[in-house]
Specification:
Blueprint: E1 10-14, H1 26-36, E2 43-48, H2 56-64, E3 69-73, H3 78-81, H4 84-88, H5 103-109, H6 114-124, H7 136-158, H8 164-176, H9 184-195, H10 202-214, E4 218-225, E5 230-240, H11 243-249, H12 257-271, E6 275-286, E7 292-305, E8 308-315, H13 321-332, E9 339-344, E10 351-352, E11 358-361, H14 362-367
Parallel strand pairs: 1-2, 2-3, 4-6, 8-9, 9-11
Antiparallel strand pairs: 4-5, 6-7, 7-8, 10-11
Helix pairs in contact: 1-2, 6-11, 7-11, 9-10
């Protein structure tokens, strides 16, 4: 093999292949793998769609007792996608989290201009299969099926949910409020207002949101009080792990550039291994009557990386003084010396304004891993 590993030392099985159906029995699978390990050399076991094996945890635990075996498994339903599996093997294995394609990865294989690639990516996202689908209607169908038949179906089946309509409607609410502060109580009130009667409660909504997080469909960004240096319990923001899935849930309506861009920036920060929160800055201003009042200004992202911190604003447009003032208002009220950045959609060379705030183009940010340190 190109990696220098002898082919006999690689034991690979696709458990969704009818030819391997006998190995969905855990004992048969374990015995087969053991029979292939004939000496003390290092072996690599690759098992795809492991969730098809009933009680696969016992098989993996058995293999972990063999000192000359590295085991790699993949799965695609909620039982395996769930963060529960991480807890199951904590201390005995490593999680390798695979994200959808980044824009840099997507654009590197896209046959078109960079602007065309961005337009495709912000609508259809980065699921790898989409690279091989040219027709837009086929892309829509693929994403809609992926959302309903993999994510929603698995969540509903795993938790034996009876209110299928409720969680379906909840995903639409979360999808339509990307980038907005919310919490289970607000969502429950919105539900009950739409139905004109009490149909659900905040505890149910909170549980459903957790199910969606555990299936890696959405991620929650906590709110951080920058001056008080503490987390604010609620409200918080939710972002979709793939913007194409979000858009598919809304039938490709609500394609506002600002919200899509903010979600994609959040995902990119996370995939780079950074800790990402939503920032809150409390300031005192005078109202129209001249009275002093407290006001909360938002910083889109408070990003931490070791002893470094970045305050980041996402701006779809930055074409007027008024817009610049709006985007820099919260940043100018932060007194520490950490770097402050505005990411704008328009292509432009990086530059610093008179307040020392770095203005960075979206393409520079997405395509250059070290762009925040320009």
């Amino acid at each position: 093999m190109d990696s220098g590993v002898n082919e006999k030392n690689i034991i690979a099985l696709r458990l969704d292949d009818i030819a391997n159906v006998e190995f969905r029995n855990p004992l048969a699978l374990y015995q087969y793998i053991k029979s292939q390990i004939v000496d003390g050399e290092q072996y690599y076991v690759l098992l795809d769609e492991i969730q098809l094996v009933s009680g696969f945890e016992d098989v993996l635990n058995g293999l972990l007792h063999l000192g000359n075996v590295d085991v790699y498994v993949t799965g695609s339903n909620s039982r395996f996608l769930s963060s529960d599996i991480i807890t199951e093997f904590r201390g005995r294995g490593d999680e390798i989290r695979l994200y959808p394609l980044s824009f840099a990865e997507f654009s590197s294989v896209y046959k078109g201009t960079l602007d065309e690639a961005w337009n495709e990516y912000r609508i259809y996202g980065g699921m790898p299969m989409l690279v091989n689908i040219a027709d837009r209607e086929e892309k829509k169908t693929y994403l809609e099926n992926l959302f309903s038949q993999v994510y929603m179906s698995d969540i509903i089946n795993r938790y034996n949910l009876r209110g299928n309509m409720e969680i379906g409607e909840l995903t639409e609410v979360v999808a339509s409020t990307v980038g907005s502060l919310t919490n289970p109580l607000r969502i429950a009130n919105a539900f009950n207002s739409m139905k004109q009667r009490k149909v659900t409660n905040p505890n149910t909504i909170g549980a459903y949101l957790q199910y969606m997080e555990e299936a890696f469909l959405i991620r929650k960004a906590m709110r951080y009080d920058i001056r008080g240096k503490q987390y604010i319990n609620t409200p918080y923001k939710y972002y979709f792990t793939d913007i194409g899935l979000r858009n598919a849930r809304l039938n490709f309506r609500q394609l506002e550039s600002g919200h899509l861009m903010e979600n994609i920036i959040y995902n990119e920060l996370c995939r780079r291994g950074l800790s990402v929160d939503v920032g809150d800055v409390e300031v005192v201003v005078k109202n129209e009557n001249g009275d002093c009042v407290r006001k909360h200004l938002e910083v889109d992202f408070v990003v931490n990386q070791g002893n470094r911190r970045y305050y980041i604003q996402s701006a779809a447009v930055l074409d007027t003084r008024e817009k610049m003032a709006q985007e820099t208002a919260s940043l100018k009220h932060i007194s520490d010396s950490f770097k402050k950045i505005i990411i704008q959609q328009d292509n432009t060379e990086p530059w610093y304004n008179e307040d020392g705030i770095l203005v960075l183009s979206l393409m520079d940010f997405l395509l250059k891993p070290d762009a925040l340190n320009m």
